[in-house]
User: Fold Pimeloyl-ACP methyl ester carboxylesterase from Alkaliphilus hydrothermalis.
Amino acid sequence: MKHKNILIHGYNKTSSDMKVLKDNLEKLGHGCIILDLPLTYHKLEHGTMLLEEMLSDLIKDLKEGEKLNLVGHSTGGLVIRHLLSFTSHRKYIDKCILVATPNRGSDFANLVGRIFRIAFKKYKTLKSIQSCELKRLGLGDECNDIDIAAIAGNNNNLFFGNLLREENDGRVTVKSVKIEGLKDFILLPYGHKDIHYQPVTAELIDSFLRTGKFKVD
Assistant:
């Protein structure tokens, strides 16, 4: 039985940013639901609690043996990780995939915190994804009983990427995406804002959902 796939957008985006990925996955036979979360002006924790409530409603409609897969782009992946750290719905979650997610903290948010901290008064999600803030959330044990994989990009096609010394996708370093405990990890030659639009990304997600591994034909 194929499970339902929940797609979660990143910082300062809406569900429309995940529509291409949704369409690509549906062409491969997967049912997808895209959600809108307040990931601009509110703390990350607020978005996570709303996701928990949304999952509570979705779980009511699951068929016997059916589960949920969670796929998040960028900050959406952090919402997934935070959710897994406390949710009462773990038994209904099968696999999770993090796409270009700053798992060790966003270098962009870290930079804003150093030179333009007043911005955090308005953009509270941005403040939440600083390295120091993620440490406060105590993430790290999410992979214990749920298979989690990550996809990173290394096409530095954004101005901010030039300020980063390490390999990056223009916004997030490869090192920040790759963390311990992942079931699989793969690097693609795309940038932060377009990696989730690529057909190959959907193909890799499809592979992991079916086999537990990223397999490229």
